[in-house]
Amino acid sequence: MATTGPSSKVSPNGAAADSGFETMDFALPDFLRRVWVHDAARLNWQPRIDKIARAWREIEWLSVVEHVRQCVLCTIPAERWNDLQRRSAKASLSIEPLMVKRNASAVPGRSAIAAEPSALSMRAVIGARRDAKRFARAWSNGDIAGVGSLLGYPECCCRFFVETMLYRDRQELLWAVASHSSKADADSHFLEIDGQGEANIFWRYLGVKAVPHIPCRFDCAGSLQLARLLADVGRRSGFAEEVEWTSQMLRWPLEWSMLHGIAEMKTPILKVGTNAVASSSKYTIRWRGDLYPEDGAQGVTFPFRRPAFSTSDRFVEGLNIIYPGKQ
Question: How much is the CA Rg of the chain, to the nearest whole Å?
Fold first, then answer.
């Protein structure tokens, strides 16, 4: 495949925005694969991850009910549309449809109109009637600042999205945020990050996150504040356990890398593979973290914890036999 140089568009201030890395002229279809380090980790954390993802969807909705935010975006199967309308109405909220999309698993060859309801998803906004209407207008007009404000996103993150993501071709969002968070050379292919767990969005592949948006930095103060507000909503709503699990996971070390359209994330409990920007060179981000799961795998390379050597009398005696005079 041919490669292209760093692509650019003109940002709102008139400056050209470079993507920062060379890309290849292809894109892989969406996919997500996970491989667990061992069965114990899978049995312990797969149910927790599923509960976190379900709890997060509920917390996002409840954040509007509790007036933490004005609006929330949601994507639901078409057959759940009427149920969501009724539930929103009971909470004195309005729901405005934004778009209908066909799911990737839909049967090829059918039109969206003729497809089964389960093959369609509805993208919608929920909020007070006036706010939902304002959001729908901002959405249709491409008003990113207006959309972000109504969703409760920090102004700095909305500005970062517009100037860094929206006006760049083939930009990988995780690399963009990491680059903005790091003091490393702009041409670096390797970044190490000491971010705040609440701003960690690497786990979003699996629905584990503490904020609903892309932070401008991994230590963005506005994003951390929003994360705390949403966590409080979760605890008040009976999701204290899910909030605690989320907090733990976002503090674990991980390594994310990207090459030839595939992103790989290595963590102490599993490895995740998904599609990404088709870069012609490998780019790597290490999130150092400050916590390690008890059932995480051991290993000699990052992000795994090195196995501890025994200091028992029998172990030391064995070393003395093998290496006399060395102990």
Answer: 23
